[in-house]
Design a protein that fits this description.
Radius of gyration: 24 Å
Number of helices: 18
Shape: globular
Strand content: under 5%
Distance between the termini: 75 Å
Helix content: 55-70%
Number of strands: 4
Largest sheet: 4 strands, mixed
């Protein structure tokens, strides 16, 4: 059986990262939040005590009773990928993994005390071996980063919000927390995509997997360059009204848009940070206790500043211009939203337009 052969002899050699810290691949926004939480004395103990109300045992029993547990005798090819991913990222304890019948391709890592990885049958049927390897690595990355705890809380609160929707202000308070968790989780997905690339070590397979999540089985009808071009067009197209619509479309989601994920991962795969990890130079887990919260927040702030500076999104460009002293906020917003793109330029070029320009020297 091919699965047994694969388990004993991986298809190709891949680099291993002994003792790697999740800080090596975490997105700056994701990393700064996690480092701050980890530095709080007793945070994990308190958080788990408060989380005792969460139905984790119920979740485990549900998957045990109504899903297929991956192992040596069930989905052995997935079990081999799981063990291989844990070996590459040096995760000592292999998480339990389940295959769940679901027509929607999806995967998740949940659990408070111990992470559980769940993949749907649709995902298993959709992806080839190397694409699936990147997904398994993605979920193992979640486990290594400790994301499963927060994902479980998010699932619980999302369900709770529906139950208390009739209580005045109750749903508002819960949804505020849910919205914050979703914003963090979208960043954590970018981190896990990077972990998937470190495990699969095949950027083309990662790109193919993301394209299939967006467009289905018809890979022969799709093109990576054209798919990445969609992300570029999405970022820079439209006006401020489109920027606001992008934000509103994103708020209910736990995952970034697929084209955006592909573009982010492609960019990181070509970065110096990724190359240093592949060369064996990366943060180690035994250094985590000495990690500076200040440095982490500074790095996160620098990332956001660079994102605003280089973004082609109309809203981000406006923020960058204003931060650089390029004009007054009220006037520029009014011009953008009313479509009076030339109004600001007319005011700037005609010193007499508002009756105050006579006698000016032309100094900026």
């Amino acid at each position: 059986m091919s699965g047994t052969v694969f388990e004993k002899a991986p298809a190709r050699d891949r680099r291993r990262f002994p003792g790697i810290s999740s800080r090596a691949y975490e997105h700056p926004a994701d990393r700064s939040a996690l480092v701050a939480l980890r530095k709080l004395s007793g945070f994990d103990t308190v958080f788990k005590a408060l989380s005792g109300l969460l139905p984790e045992r119920s979740l485990r029993l549900l998957f045990l009773s109504d899903s297929v547990r991956v192992g040596e005798t069930q989905f052995p090819h997935l079990y081999a990928m799981l063990r291989d991913a844990c070996y590459i990222l040096d995760l000592e304890k292999v998480p339990q993994m389940y295959v769940q019948q679901d027509p929607k391709p999806n995967a998740m890592c949940i659990g408070l005390d111990e992470p559980i990885i769940v993949v749907t049958t649709a995902l298993v049927e959709l992806l080839d071996e190397e694409e699936m390897r990147a997904v398994v690595g993605h979920e193992v990355g979640h486990a290594l980063s400790g994301h499963s705890v927060y994902r479980t809380v998010l699932l619980f609160l999302t369900g709770l919000a529906l139950k208390v929707a009739w209580i005045p202000l109750g749903n508002v308070a819960i949804m505020a927390i849910v919205t914050a968790l979703r914003e963090w989780f979208r960043k954590s997905e970018l981190s896990a995509d990077r972990a998937g690339l470190l495990v699969g070590q095949d950027v083309n397979a990662s790109m193919r997997g993301l394209m299939k999540l967006a467009g289905g089985h018809h890979l022969h009808e799709m093109n990576v360059d054209a798919f990445l071009a969609q992300a570029e067009e999405y970022e820079q197209s439209g006006d401020l009204r489109d920027s606001v619509l992008k934000i509103l479309n994103m708020l209910p989601r736990t995952h970034p848009f697929t084209t955006v994920r592909a573009a982010e991962l492609k960019k990181w795969s070509q970065s110096r940070d990724h190359q240093r990890i592949m060369d064996g130079h990366y943060p180690r887990r035994d250094e985590d206790p000495d990690t500076s919260v200040t440095d982490s927040f500074r790095e996160s702030a620098a990332h956001y500043a660079e994102s605003v500076r280089t973004s082609k999104d109309p809203l981000m460009k406006l923020v960058g211009d204003i931060a650089g002293g390029a004009g007054d906020l009220g006037g520029r917003l009014r011009d953008k939203f009313t479509g009076a793109a030339g109004a600001g330029a007319a005011r700037a070029s005609d010193p007499d337009a508002d009756g105050k320009g006579k006698g000016t020297t032309g100094q900026g």
